[in-house]
TrEMBL record:
It comes from Williamsia phyllosphaerae. Pfam families: CorA. The chain crosses the membrane at residues 294-312, 324-344. Keywords: Cell membrane, Membrane, Transmembrane, Transmembrane helix, Transport. It is a multi-pass membrane protein. InterPro entries: CorA_cytoplasmic_dom, CorA_TM1_TM2, MgTranspt_CorA/ZnTranspt_ZntB. This is Magnesium transporter. Belongs to the CorA metal ion transporter (MIT) (TC 1.A.35) family. Gene3D superfamilies: CorA soluble domain-like, Magnesium transport protein CorA, transmembrane region. It is found in: Cell membrane.
């Protein structure tokens, strides 16, 4: 069942035009005084086919926009530019101490794929959200705020810069979402580092949580790293996209943010690997301590066993069948065990 929704706006000389119909987009894309934005949420294949015919969109780009999965990319076609990016949000663990707390809430990254068709003075966004469109799965969830894009577009005076400013606002919101997710992952890894030396937390629970964070980082890395090529292509085509050199500082700053997110993600992957290896090392250290303790106690117990075994032979010994002999043997046991205990304790074996 489809959850299709269509919204949008047309501006004429910087002023919004009342009413929006998707069928009117093709009538406005050749008018330099107009700016068009259309947002399609979970569109059906028929809707995208009609739109592709009206705007002469590449059929492979349309298929990519509706595909079950697609990588982050930017492709320049003859009559338009096609971009695919992912908005992300992170559900962080809700607790940080105790064995049950480690497993209380599994960390999970949620994705929303956004496909962009940039046609002259029009920006067409196609978003796939949870359970929508023809796909019917739940891989994606609604984590992207398009209203925030419009707000930032207004802040920089987007009416004066055209579709380039609108595109910048969208990518800026996406990259900020990447930043927030990386920050939360960083905090989650720091919490995990503190749990490493908590004796109350089971190592198996730590391993599960470490694996979950590492899995999320791998998923985030797949959508963050290609963003460099996306922003680079848009910068190279800035004149064709209508913003020329006017928005160059904004796109340069955006590219810098993308690089910072990429580097941060790589460093976090190294950190979570270090946490995993440290946990294994601590397990080995704890096992060695247990083995030393068991060995020490076995040595202590071996002394009375040897003495009683010797006295248990059918050989008369001094004090045999007398109270003095019993006291002597018991004293020998206690003194030997005490000496061994103090010796092992001094060497930190117990």
């Amino acid at each position: 069942m489809s959850n299709q929704a269509v919204r949008g706006q047309i501006w004429h000389k910087g002023e919004p035009v009342d009413g929006f119909e998707l069928e009117k987009v093709s009538d406005c894309i050749d008018d330099p005084d107009r700016l068009v934005w259309a947002d399609l949420i979970n569109p059906t294949h028929d809707t995208m086919t009609r739109l592709a015919e009206e705007l002469s969109l590449n059929k492979w780009a349309v298929e990519d926009a509706l595909a079950a999965s697609e990588r982050v990319k930017a492709t320049a076609y003859a009559k338009h530019t096609f971009v695919t990016v992912y908005a992300v949000a992170f559900d962080a663990p809700t607790a940080t101490t105790g064995d049950e707390a480690v497993d209380a809430a599994a960390a999970r990254i949620r994705f929303e794929r956004i496909s962009l068709f940039i046609v002259h003075n029009a920006l067409i966004t196609v978003r796939l959200t949870e359970g929508g469109g023809d796909r019917g799965d739940s891989e994606y969830s609604d984590v992207f705020d398009m209203d925030e894009v419009l707000r930032r577009w207004d802040e920089i005076g987007g009416q004066d810069y055209g579709v380039g400013a609108l595109l910048h606002g969208l990518l800026d919101v996406v990259v900020d979402g990447h930043f927030d997710t990386v920050q939360q992952l960083d905090d989650a890894i720091e919490d995990l580092e503190e749990l490493l030396f908590d004796e109350k937390v089971a190592s198996r629970a730590l391993q599960r949580r470490t694996y979950s964070l590492r899995k999320n980082l791998v998923a985030l890395r797949r959508v963050v790293l290609p963003m460099r090529e996306v922003v680079s292509l848009i910068q190279r085509k800035r004149h064709e996209l209508g913003h020329g050199d006017t928005l160059e500082p904004e796109f340069t700053d955006l590219y810098d943010h993308v690089l910072r997110v990429t580097e941060w993600t790589e460093s976090l992957r190294d950190m979570v690997t270090t946490v995993f290896e440290t946990n294994l090392s601590l397990q080995d250290a704890r096992l060695n301590t247990v083995m030393k303790q068991l060995t020490a106690w076995a040595a202590i117990i071996a002394v009375p066993t040897a003495i009683t075994g010797f006295y248990g032979q059918n050989v008369p010994f001094p004090g045999f069948e007398h109270t003095g002999g019993f006291i002597t043997s018991v004293s020998l046991l206690v003194v030997s065990m005490t000496v061994l205990y103090l010796l092992f304790k001094r060497r930190d074996w117990l």
